Amino acid sequence: MARLTIYFTSDTHGYLYNTTFADGQERSMGLLSMDFPKDGNTLVIDGGDTIQGSPLTYYLHEKGEGQDMIWEALNRRGYDYVTLGNHDFNYGRSWLSPYLHGLHAECLCANVEDLQGELPLGGTAIRVMENGLKVGLFGIVTDWVNRWEKKDNLKGFKISSPLRAARACAARLREEGADIVVGIYHGGMEKDLETGRLLSDTDENLACRICEEVPVDLLLTGHQHIAMTGSWNGTHLVQTPFNALQYVKVQLQDDGTWVSELVTPPSVQTLTEKEKKIRGDLEKWLDTPIGHLSRDLWPGDKLDMALHGTSIAAFFNRVQLDVSGADVSLSMIPNSCRGFAKDVTVRDVVATYIYPNTLCVLKADGKTIRAALEQTASYFDARGPENIRISDAFLHPKEEHYNYDYFAGLTYAFDLSRPVGQRVCCLKREGRDIQDEDVFTVAMNDYRATGTGKYPMWTRCEHVQDILTEMSELILTYFSEHALVQAEEPSSPVCFYGDIRL
Q1: Is residue 452 predicted with pLDDT exceeding 80?
Q2: Are 326 and 442 in contact (CB under 8 A)?
């Protein structure tokens, strides 16, 4: 018999409904499809990235509808505790505050301090269950929020080391008599749980180190979107996939062992009248025509797009160059994107460019651009012209296809027979070889400008301009200003293996 049952969700990103909104198909997903039976020995917990990341949250934010349906959904499902994820800061305090105040659940995020003293943020809690078990809990979030988030959105917040906070919280909970300690960490694993191989040499994800240095019995993790249950150094570890595709059920048995499973929700949903209305209004808005392309732009195989380019990234770059006036632009493709039909709708835009990125313009020399291209070229694991695949570094511990960048304003080529770091075999602009000392303005999203994705070279560049309108809105505006947009074939990259053009 279980002494404690925990239902855990994380990285739901506002996917309440049983659809991705890329099409009308109903799927086994969505927070509104989930049900968590509760008794006196049950807790329901969320690991953050809850109020941003879907067409629904974009719609609610743009229309000023508020996100009360999100916290109402959590309240009806009896959530007891939540923590914050990095994306929960994306729309700033004005979006985060009503969410936290509307929740019945207690928000535990020990390494986030609200300097204004307005938000209901706690660090630790002890819950005495019906059977007398004293459960100590704490929440933390990766402090890489400080690198990624816009400065305006972090005004009034101080985000410190999650590891230091975890140590202090666990010690306090033990002193207060907790029988078990549960950590809620919006961050992931830096090591392979089976082999111990180091997967990341940064401190973005610290789950294994927390397990090694902090006396935690159960660590509920997120951020990486890896569906898994396992253990490290005697601590039980779990993580959910993203977009409310699954949740985790964890139970503490009478013998002190942990048992956990990933659960897929049903595809059928029972909605309130308010949820039905918002769903209908959202679908109508998503199907609003906004422009026309000369042809459809659908995503292809990820490896093929990286090798030969994609018209979707070429279009993103065209918008970035048009808005910024920069010499060069770079853009990425999300891990999952809808693409554009010839007759473009709002749905095409918000389900293709899914991030709340704004733009930065930097001043960079040729040496810096070449270094960035070399990092992009490390996406390929090439063992011969017929044996090219995606590097494990972009697949594990988390799929990061969005860290492959497509450049415009340049002509460039990769020779994949060369070692990583020496693959750029051609780099020109307007037919002229780019020299190390040549200087250009370069447009990119604000996420990449922080150096994230192993692009530290961008952080050393002079900052020229910020364009604080979100890319999705810039794309919508671009279509409103151009009656017919000609879809371009990408001219770069050109990939070789030695003398063989791929």
Answers
A1: yes
A2: yes
